[in-house]
Fold:
Amino acid sequence: MDEHEFKKVHDEVNDRPCVFAKAVLRGCAACSRSEKVLIAEREAIACQSPGGHQRCSDLVAHLRENALFALHLRQLDGPLPHGKEMKVECGGLLGLNSVAEGADAEHVEDIDALVGESLTRWHGFEQLPYSRISQWVVKYQSRRRR
Structure:
């Protein structure tokens, strides 16, 4: 199956892709609302919650916007390169988990629960402590250097 055909099938099978799919597939986070979808020996992650999908979409947009300086960017002009997106997703979730739980962890147990708790605690994504979360974006490394 070529890449074009894969994307076509992916869009047909996975109508609500997980916003944090890269983080889930990397193993730095899990979500109670996610479901693994297998397509031609590849994995994709689907979101089972329309409301959760919207909350996560809003959160990742705020994470990207507030991580521009940490990513050495001036503005967002489209999708981020894979490595920078990994920093936003994994680093952002680990940072949010750290400020929400008060302890450092290498894995987020449930993205949906973390997002819900954060919305309740900070009364919206605009109020999140992005200066502390961005520190995690900066220090996140997808793969250890050899």
The longest strand covers residues 34-39. Residues 3-139 form one domain. The helical segments are 3-13, 21-26, 50-66, 82-101, 111-122, 130-139. The CA atoms of residues 2 and 50 lie 30 Å apart.
